[in-house]
Amino acid sequence: MDIFTTIRVALWALLRNKVRSFLTMLGIIIGISAVIAVVAVGEGATVMIKGQIQSMGNNLVTIFPGNMSRGGVSFGGGSRSTLTASDGDAIIRECSNIKAITPVNRRGAQVIFQEKNSWTMVMGVNTSYLEIRNWQMSSGSFFQDSDVTGATKVCILGATVVEEIFGVEDPVGQIIRVKNMPFRVLGTLEKKGSAAWGQDQDDVIVMPWTTVSRVIQNSQLNEVNQVIISLTSMDMLEKAKKEITALLRERHKLTPSAEDDFSIMDVTEVTKTITETSRTMTLLLGIIASISLLVGGIGIMNIMLVSVTERTREIGLRMAVGARGKDILMQFLVEATVLAVIGGIFGTTLGTIGAKLIAQFSNWPVFISVNAVLLAFVFSAVVGVSFGFFPAWRAARLNPIEALRYE
Amino acid sequence: MLIKLDKISKIYHVGEVDIPAVRDISLDINAGELMAIMGASGSGKTTLMNIIGCLDRPSKGRYLLDGQDITTMSKNELAYVRNKKIGFVFQSFNLLSRTSALENVELPMFYGNNLTSRQKRARAVEVLERVGLGQRMKHHPSQLSGGEQQRVAIARSLVNQPKILLADEPTGNLDSKRGKEIMELFQQLNKEGITIVLITHDKDTAFYARRVVHVKDGLIVNN
Ligand SMILES: Nc1ncnc2c1ncn2[C@@H]1O[C@H](COP(=O)(O)OP(=O)(O)OP(=O)(O)O)[C@@H](O)[C@H]1O
Ligand SMILES: [Mg+2]
């Protein structure tokens, strides 16, 4: 019996018991649609997170003072920071593949305009900041190199700050107070949205790093909290990291046995961590979905066993007219597989619709990948074959005489 | 010699009890014969037919079909022989329910050949017309009378052009008029060269046979 005839016979057998076939499929349908929906939500989250990481900037590498692997991170605070703005200058002067670099001095501060005030993050940077962060101005202009040298009291406002203390009023040219000192607003930034870890990237005011040091922190030192570097290409990451490490160790006069007194973080690491986390989540949910598929498979096995018993005489007859054990085995195996695969098709459809609904009602991004759909098919076929095998084997082993006599 | 049974026995074991359904039967059947096996209920007729039809293997003895030793064949080889050489008409027609007459007749062609579905259909139509059911091909068994169901079963047994046709009580469930029709059909088929062995306990049916074998308690009583 060729495979097309076998499939046709299987379909015909399943259609003879429509309700029962459907109920049997239900297990698979629920399992597969759960898998599809779960994976779609999981992958949607991954895609969203990757997009957010992209929004952080181009080919970013960040240097922090202190050794992160030892847990000794110092963000300014009491202990002396080992990273300085001149380290940054040296890196761009001596290392290759560096597109732009900015020191960062961060500090929380109260900003006031007229009666309104807001607690926000003050970012002290240089003029490369916008390029590095891949950020655009919304209105006005950014500060100049002369503002960095002169530590002038100017600032640029993030979209959230504008909203909170200006509302609809145009902030450009206005004077706001930061730590009770007057600052001129030069411009405003485009809205960037929240970062991968949920922090609002627009709740920020940007000013020259020297202003943060000299004016806000009232310090004459060149220490900074971070140095952010934009590489010409991510392919150069490892090489650049090596060069930077060598240069900084030399500048900080570390002996060969001493540990680094700085840490280099790059986006790939962040991306990896986040993708891994979301993959673990997907995996966990996938296991739960697989269990429901397993239950569906057992349902198939059960019904196929019933079906084999019911159709004992049919099996005997087929054997009498020339079916070999192999033919009978194939027939029932194909029947179970067809059952599972049709369930898989329904399940995929339902899962896709479900994922779309989730997307619509929860604003959660979903992404239905071709891989997941293919996998669902393969999986349902595997469930069909593996759970159909035992009943089919039982059928194939029947003795034709006894099968024909069966009442 | 088409069929040669040599001291064939079949013993069923039910729990501790041995039931000898067929005992030491030796029987030769020539190609082209129309033969009847008669005997009381439980005398072992169906068991004998199952052995002749290669559905069942004897517990003892040797069986040569067409010169081939059936007793040493594997299950798959037996299936092949059944498919190619033997047509069964069972005591209870054994048609697939909720399946049209045409599809029932096509069944033996699913196995062991590579006819296209069109060729299969054409052959099935041909044999159904042959048994006079050309108008009822789309009907399911439940929509057919007993005689018509029997003719579907006969059409199915003929569709692979067997050498031997084995019929177990082919007229048992029919009135005498329908029974006569069936027997005339068998006679016609036999004239065309098919060897026919039929089981019956009805003298009128046995009348059509050129040779009658009587079975009693698993033994042949006269030949
Ligand atoms: N599978 C089996 N297991 C046990 N005993 C069996 C089996 N098949 C047949 N028998 C026994 O073998 C004997 C012969 O049975 P068989 O079916 O050949 O009779 P028969 O001549 O065809 O009878 P009938 O005219 O009623 O069809 C009976 O006593 C029956 O009970
Ligand atoms: Mg019988």
Structural domains of chain B: how many? 1
User: What's the N-to-C terminus distance of chain B?
Assistant: 17 Å
Number of helices of chain B: 7
Mean pLDDT of chain B: 92
Give the class of chain B from helix and strand content and strand pairing: alpha/beta
Give a short account of the largest sheet of chain A. 6 strands, mixed, barrel
Please give the largest β-sheet of chain B.
6 strands, mixed
List the total number of helices of chain A: 13
Strand order of the largest sheet of chain A: 2-3-8-5-7-6
Structural shape of chain A? elongated
Multimeric state: heterodimer
List the helices and strands and how they pair.
The complex is a heterodimer of chains A (407) and B (223).
Chain A: H1 3-16, H2 18-56, E1 60-65, H3 85-94, E2 98-113, E3 116-125, H4 129-133, E4 137-140, H5 145-150, E5 154-157, H6 159-165, E6 175-178, E7 181-189, E8 204-208, H7 209-216, E9 226-231, H8 237-251, E10 262-266, H9 267-310, H10 312-320, H11 325-362, H12 370-396, H13 400-405
Helix pairs in contact in A: 1-11, 2-9, 2-11, 2-12, 3-8, 9-11, 9-12, 11-12
Chain B: E1 3-14, E2 17-29, E3 34-39, H1 45-52, E4 60-65, E5 68-69, H2 75-85, E6 86-89, H3 101-106, H4 117-130, H5 146-158, E7 164-168, H6 176-191, E8 195-200, H7 203-206, E9 211-216, E10 219-222
